[in-house]
Amino acid sequence: MRCWAEINIENLYDNIRELEKITLKEKIMAVIKADAYGHGMMNICEALIKTGIKKFAVATVEEALEIRETNNEVGILILGPVENECMSKVSDNNIYFMITDFEEIEYIEKNRINVNVFLKLDTGMGRVGFQEDEISELTEKLKNCKYVNAVGIFSHFSSSDSDEEYTKLQEKRFKEMSENIMKEVHSVKYRHLLNSFGSLKYHDSEYDFVRMGIILYGGVTDEETAPYKFKPVMSLYAKISHIKKMHKDSFISYGNTYMAKKGDVVATVSIGYADGVRRDLSNKGYVYYKGHRCSIIGRVCMDQLMILIPEELADSAKKGDIVEFFGKNINVVEVANLCNTISYEILCGISNRVPRIYK
Ligand SMILES: *Cc1c(COP(=O)(O)O)cnc(C)c1O
Q1: Which of 98, 134, 286, 317 is the one with CA 20 to 30 A from 278?
Q2: For ligand 1, what atom is nearest to the CA of residue 212?
């Protein structure tokens, strides 16, 4: 194998144990959308079911149906849009989805589709959901609905990792809006608001579920989650496919952005941006190899990239050796920072071409 992502299920289990210090296991709704943030949706789902987790959230109808195909017991909520034509299929499969506007309610009533849904409220994320001044109309409509059975309400934080004041405001709005609905619409039993970072900073006592995503996978730093500690579930590795000592000063890779010196030892590694190693890491990133951080030199290519072997390793470095891009020794958050993005994008950007190895 030229490169692979190792998925450490024991670390996932350790993360669940750590989460149990924050919330009850029964409250955990595991967010496994986007192939479980690149970790392999069905494998992660099965592993989590073994720990006793019974509720899952995904983004698409396809993801939800894939889980339902192998498991009839677990609760599934779709966090993304469900097109009108898909609503009966989703509902026949006992899958929950969200209602975000009046049009959806009208469609369901008109077409007499029995559905169990969660109402999505926009408390300040600005993505989807009912706004504050729509709540009384929503309540009135729902009271007259024959087919829309609203079992719950939820909303989403926009900045739970960075803006405490705004998050508190969203929490306050959620409380008011959801209480106003619950006073009138008695089918509503469940409320949820917290995501991974929200769960670390805010109490879950008022909520029935907590939607856990990135923290399950350990795509976080100890500083962000203190006093709790989460372990990386994914590690990305690739093999050295070629090593050379430069015979003279010479450019490395496309665009001639790096000049290697005569005598430098340069290794070519079998992974590139088509695998999910971002091109932003050109002349900026590093890999972990035999106790050293080795710089990525020149531009990252589609399927390969070059690293500079430090003098200490010049004699021992050899073709076939394995280097780590992130995992045990390099936190994926560091890589994300170098790419001006977040760990989520790095993890779910590891492409299908990269085999996932479970251990
Ligand atoms: C993706 C998503 C989550 C999970 O967020 P994390 O930050 O990974 O915990 C929770 N809620 C909604 C609505 C989402 O779209």
Answers
A1: 317
A2: 9
Q: Which residue owns the Cα nearest ligand 1 atom 4? A: 213
pTM: 0.97
SS3 state at 281? helix
What is the CATH number assigned to the segment(s) 9-222? 3.20.20.10
- For ligand 1, say whether the CB of 194 is within 6 Å of any of its atoms: no
Which one, of 76, 8, 104, 3, lies nearest residue 328 by Cα?
8
Where are the CATH 2.40.37.10 domain residues in the chain?
234-358
Annotate 275-284 with b (16+ C-beta within 10 A) or e (fewer): bbbbebbbee
| Cα 226 to ligand 1 centre (Å) | 20
Domain ranges in the chain with CATH number 3.20.20.10: 9-222
The reply to whether ligand 1 has any atom less than 6 angstroms from the CB of 192 is no
Q: Which of 93, 92, 97 is nearest to 67 (CA)?
A: 93
Identify whether 284 is a catalytic site residue: no
> Would you identify the CATH topology of the domain 234-358?
Lyase, Ornithine Decarboxylase; Chain A, domain 1 (2.40.37)
Instruction: Convert the pLDDT of each residue in 83-137 to its tens digit.
Output: 999 999 999 999 999 999 999 999 999 999 999 999 999 999 999 999 999 999 9
Tell me the CA–centroid distance for residue 142 and ligand 1, in Å.
26
Centroid of ligand 1 to alpha carbon of 31 (angstroms): 7
